[in-house]
TrEMBL record:
This is GDP-mannose 4,6-dehydratase. Keywords: Lyase, NADP. It catalyses: GDP-alpha-D-mannose = GDP-4-dehydro-alpha-D-rhamnose + H2O. One of its GO terms (molecular function) is GDP-mannose 4,6-dehydratase activity. Its cofactor is NADP(+). The lineage of its organism: Bacteria, Bacillati, Cyanobacteriota, Cyanophyceae, Leptolyngbyales.
Amino acid sequence: MAKKALITGLTGQDGSYLAELLVEKGYQVFGLVRRSSSGNLDRISHLSDKVQILSGDLLDQSSLMDVITESSPDEIYNLASQSYVPLSWTQPALTAEYTALGVSRLLESIRRCKPDARFYQASSSEVFGQPDESPQTERTAFRPRNPYGVAKAYAHWMTVNYRQKYGLYSCCGITYTHESPRRGTEFVFRKITLAAAMIKLGMSHDLKLGNLDARRDWCYAKDAVHAMWVMLQQDKPDDFIIASGETHSVRELVECAFRCVGLDWENYVSVDPAFYRPDEAVQLIGSIDKIGKQLNWQPQYSFEQLVELMVDHDLKRLSEK
Ligand code: NAP
């Protein structure tokens, strides 16, 4: 019989790639989707006949219990959250409701309705905040520096606690930034690759950025969701860092994106201090030793390949308009 998986955050970047992966692997896939008056199914429209959508919200415990009872999943992937760090400063309480307490509600629903389901929690490198070591490992202390990171740290420890207290198969993937053509344009990687494509096509003329020397550990969302699935196939639940294991600066990203469209970035890019992030995280780089050794996972796409595939995607999409 086909395995069943429930994905929260199905309509998001990771949810859509994970659904594709699980459908390919022969799973029966259910997605928890909250109601939206304007529709939010763009990223999964190509999967509409392959994924069963169930209505629910991380803010509503009874909806979570109903969805878990109805789908009776073998695996549950919690990818839903308020995922944009700057917004967590203007909506800190709502961020905690979704990203922290939402996970409590979900874990409690699993414990009551389907305690043998395997659970993946989307933890984040933002739990490390201003880390005191680099690269970070699964043992690095959490020092979150924004409401999003604080909420993710709470969710992380609740997931670990439900494993220890109730014996749930629950584990956390501490993902570093991961990108794709389905990433929101408010995130700097997509903002840059999209701008390079638009400037090439004459649809825009310049690009304003913050700190060009900021460095990030970026990988491809498809690589990240593969790691999530591998984590739930192990005999014992455990927590792993999911990252590329290397950092690149925003400057390198800009150079690479504009090289892909045959332009000199210095003619188009200017620095605007208004875009500096006040809580700029330093030296966030994940050690992938543990996941490499124990799960034999490593990213399949390089930084340059990721930039190129995102620029190409936007060039093609915008040219078709
Ligand atoms: P995303 O594109 O922003 O998607 C977030 C998803 O959460 C959307 O499907 C959204 O639904 C859903 N959601 C938000 N609030 C909800 C609620 N109250 N009830 C039910 N669903 C709700 O995020 P992503 O990039 O795919 O990231 C997936 C997960 O990994 C998130 O938890 C994120 O915090 C974490 N993470 C991501 C990264 C990264 O670089 N992408 C790095 C570290 C951690 P709507 O469509 O209705 O808005």
